[in-house]
Specification:
Blueprint lengths: L1 H8 L8 H15 L4 H25 L2 H5 L5 H21 L1 H4 L5 H11 L6 H9 L4 H27 L8 H21 L1 H10 L1 H25 L2 H4 L2 H28 L4 H11 L4 H11 L2 H46 L1
Length: 342
């Protein structure tokens, strides 16, 4: 998320950003004072409304040019799509026998859910820009991933995350996501000619709604999970194992996306885009989708791997983006020197 990236730049790249600290505080609050009874019901309603407003504002903010601008670069888009919705699910499935002993089966279900999510939009674009990548292609790729994820993620959840139908019918899940997430997005996008400029001028409002809705979902999800005994079921050793699982998954994804980009002959700018768009997973889409796809008492454990992966990917990708930027600066200086010599 862009705000997470921006906030984190003000401090050491190895320290958690403010949004991550807020997530931790909310999890602690939900663990100590979970919302129960009528309070829990009101928090659920408030969360649903906040998510609807969030997607409405994102629809109003995203330009049509950004959606279609990079479609002509089909090789890059196809590779990023394959990394997001094919490579990651395969990794989650293949690594399951090796990594499951490090965590609980319930937490690894969350890891599988992480693997079938679309790519993140804001931070993928931000890191691509920092690394001097193809920003136009990143905007198109990340936006398309989010939109396609509405249809693909529920299908993959039923196929490999809960194949016994624990998430309900795939078509029912798609219908719920379309109603709760995409309908507000579509309405916002249709109204963009009239409200787009207003939304753009008030980016801080969108950022506040963005952060607030995610924090609300996390609070309600962990409240329900704590009431059902989440922390009695998740030992400290499993949490430590989950950090290792997320690090291994991200390291393999970064290695493979880099290798694919170079093997297929993409230039450096496109490589940067492929690495950052193909290796990242969306917290902003994943948590609202989990609320729709899974039972309330299961959401807390399901999104915990995603929350950890999100912070790890921000810290690691910040380092990689700066490295790409230094490489670009060095190549530019070299070209300038050769130009003067010629």
């Amino acid at each position: 998320m862009t705000n997470s990236v921006q906030w984190g730049m003000a401090r050491s790249r190895f320290l958690p950003d403010n949004f991550t600290i807020a997530l931790v505080v909310v999890v602690v609050l939900a663990s100590v004072w979970p919302a129960t009874g009528s309070a829990g019901h009101y928090f659920e309603l408030l969360t649903t409304v906040a998510i609807g407003v969030l997607f409405f504002l994102h629809g109003a903010k995203l330009s049509r040019e950004a959606i279609i601008g990079g479609i002509t670069h089909w090789r890059l888009q196809l590779l990023v799509f394959g990394c997001t919705f094919v490579m990651f699910p395969i990794l989650g499935f293949v690594l399951r026998p090796i990594l499951t002993p490090l965590v609980t089966p319930q937490l690894y279900t969350g890891v599988l859910y992480l693997c079938v999510l679309p790519a993140t939009v804001q931070s993928a674009i931000a890191f691509t820009s920092i690394g001097r990548g193809n920003v136009a292609a990143a905007v198109c790729s990340a936006s398309a991933s989010t939109l396609l994820g509405v249809f693909i993620t529920p299908l993959l959840v039923n196929l490999m995350v809960l194949p016994q139908g624990g998430a309900g019918s795939s078509f029912d899940a798609i219908g719920r996501i379309l109603l709760q997430l995409m309908l507000p997005f579509a309405v916002g996008h249709l109204l963009r000619p009239w409200i787009g400029a207003w939304v753009k001028r008030r980016a801080s409002v969108l950022s506040l709604v963005d952060r607030g809705s995610i924090l609300l979902v996390v609070y309600t999800a962990f409240s329900a999970a704590v009431i059902e005994g989440l922390w009695r079921q998740v030992p400290v050793s499993a949490l430590a194992g989950l950090v290792l699982v997320c690090m291994v998954l991200l390291a393999i994804a970064l290695t493979l996306t880099t290798w694919f980009a170079r093997r297929l002959g993409f230039d450096k700018a496109d490589e940067v885009t492929i690495v950052f768009c193909g290796s990242k997973k969306s917290l902003a889409s994943g948590i609202p989708m989990a609320k729709v796809l899974f039972a309330p008492d299961a959401v807390g454990a399901i999104v915990l791997p995603l929350m950890l992966f999100h912070q790890i990917q921000l810290m690691v990708c910040a380092v990689i983006a700066q490295r790409y930027a230094r490489q670009h600066a060095a190549m530019a200086a070299l070209d300038e020197e050769f130009g003067k010599a010629a």
